[in-house]
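hiii so um. not sure if this is the right channel but i have a protein structure encoded as tokens and i wanna go backwards to a sequence. like what aa goes where. can anyone help
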């Protein structure tokens, strides 16, 4: 048993000593059989939720109605769920009825994929009625039961299929692929937040390019409840060997989820506005959205904006030949953090030749100040010295000073900056 499962063993033992059946199920069994690190521990039991609660001193009624109780054991928690069947999927997402049952196989039958429908007993023996272990070995995602029926019950499973295929490097069984294409319109029943969560897992995985290709090739990407920008929906799997394919492969070399998302937008040729609207549609938090959009904007300001790697001859490719002024202007407008993000994407995806990268890195490093926060004066200094009132004019003055400093026309020193501001103010 995996060490994390070992830690949860007392929970299973306790349930067994109460006369109930209890087993590990779901992701932890699958991941331990694959030798992957476990995310969380799920236990299924024949005990009813109130019987579970009665056995353990400290429990949380996580989803009592659905049969889930959170139990603390040692320093950790695990979710204990009563064997159950689900029915009444009227809205293609959540079951309206849950019925507790006393049989493990019946519980495993409601689970989405064979690799997620394996149970493991305390002694390490497995219960695998749907051939999940064989599918793990063959590296294939197969539904428990008829894929069309299962996707029709809960359309989120379509995204989960693609997520597991892309994160594990598995293929989709042909029956699953056919059902994906047939049922894709049902995706509109799924909340954008849940789509976001799956997308994030795909993007964080080892081969996001493949997950995205499956999303677009199946047509799923075009059937979200709120439409994603055309640029994203149409981001087709590029011809292998093409420069775009090289960039898509590079996506997995990009560190950090935000940077990967920025790279995706750049690759799709999305404008900063497209990127902002896609992230809003997908309910990304505002701060993360701004971080990502700044990188896309910096890319657009330095010659990007068409799909990356589109075969433009090197000397004419505006991304390659952006001037120092273009680069510095973009850094001032988008921030040094965006520039760092862009440079790391450029390195991973080989956006521009390495000498161009090195040149821009140097320009960035040599910048005496990249934002007004780094200036030797602040807004209140200007207000005091020039007798201004707070307002947008102060911000404009600071921006103007920043440009002078960034381009080396003025030292970043308090007196020099205040004098310059005074001169501008007098000549106004
Ligand atoms: P991970 O935690 O790595 O995302 P997981 O397989 O553990 O993967 P969870 O969402 O934690 O996924 O769900 C635990 C188990 O519950 C799954 O392994 C599966 O057996 C079942 N399950 C989860 N979501 C669904 C669903 N939409 N339809 C059917 N079964 C599901
Ligand atoms: Mg899990």
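sure thing!! here u go:
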């Amino acid at each position: 048993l995996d060490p994390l499962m070992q830690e949860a063993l007392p929970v299973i033992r306790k349930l067994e000593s109460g006369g109930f059946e209890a087993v590990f199920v779901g992701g932890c069994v699958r991941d331990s059989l694959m030798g992957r690190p476990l995310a969380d521990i799920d236990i299924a039991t024949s005990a009813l939720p109130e019987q579970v609660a009665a056995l353990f001193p400290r429990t949380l009624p996580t989803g009592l109605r659905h049969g889930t109780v959170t139990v603390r054991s040692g320093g950790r928690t695990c979710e204990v769920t009563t064997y159950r069947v689900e029915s009444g999927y009227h809205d293609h997402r959540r079951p309206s009825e849950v019925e507790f049952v006393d049989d493990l196989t019946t519980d495993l039958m409601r689970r989405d994929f064979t690799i997620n429908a394996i149970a493991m007993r305390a002694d390490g023996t497995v219960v695998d009625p749907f051939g999940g272990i064989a599918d793990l070995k063959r590296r294939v995602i197969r539904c428990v039961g008829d894929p069309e029926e299962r996707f029709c019950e809960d359309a989120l499973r379509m995204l989960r299929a693609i997520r597991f295929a892309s994160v594990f490097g598995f293929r989709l069984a042909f029956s699953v692929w056919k059902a994906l294409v047939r049922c894709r319109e049902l995706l509109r029943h799924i909340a954008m937040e849940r789509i976001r969560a799956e997308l994030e897992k795909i993007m964080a995985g080892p081969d996001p390019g493949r997950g995205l290709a499956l999303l677009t090739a199946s047509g799923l990407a075009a059937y979200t409840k709120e439409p994603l920008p055309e640029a994203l929906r149409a981001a087709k799997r590029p011809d292998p060997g093409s420069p775009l394919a090289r960039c898509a492969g590079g996506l997995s070399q990009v560190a950090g989820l935000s940077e990967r998302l920025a790279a995706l937008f750049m690759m799709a040729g999305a404008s900063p506005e497209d990127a902002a609207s896609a992230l809003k549609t997908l309910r990304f938090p505002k701060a993360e959205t701004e971080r990502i959009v700044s990188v896309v904007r910096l890319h657009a300001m330095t010659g990007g904006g068409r799909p990356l790697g589109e075969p433009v001859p090197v000397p004419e490719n505006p991304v390659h030949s952006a001037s120092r002024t273009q680069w510095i202007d973009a850094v001032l407008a988008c921030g040094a953090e965006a520039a760092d993000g862009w440079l790391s994407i450029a390195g991973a995806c080989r956006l521009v030749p390495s000498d161009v990268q090195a040149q821009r890195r140097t320009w960035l490093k040599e910048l005496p100040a990249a934002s007004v926060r780094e200036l030797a004066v602040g807004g209140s200094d200007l207000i005091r010295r020039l007798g201004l009132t707070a307002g947008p004019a102060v911000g404009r003055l600071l921006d103007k000073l920043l440009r002078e400093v960034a381009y080396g026309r003025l030292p970043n020193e308090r007196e020099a900056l205040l004098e310059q501001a005074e001169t501008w103010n007098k000549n106004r």
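oh and The chain has four domains: 3-131, 139-226, 235-367, 372-426.
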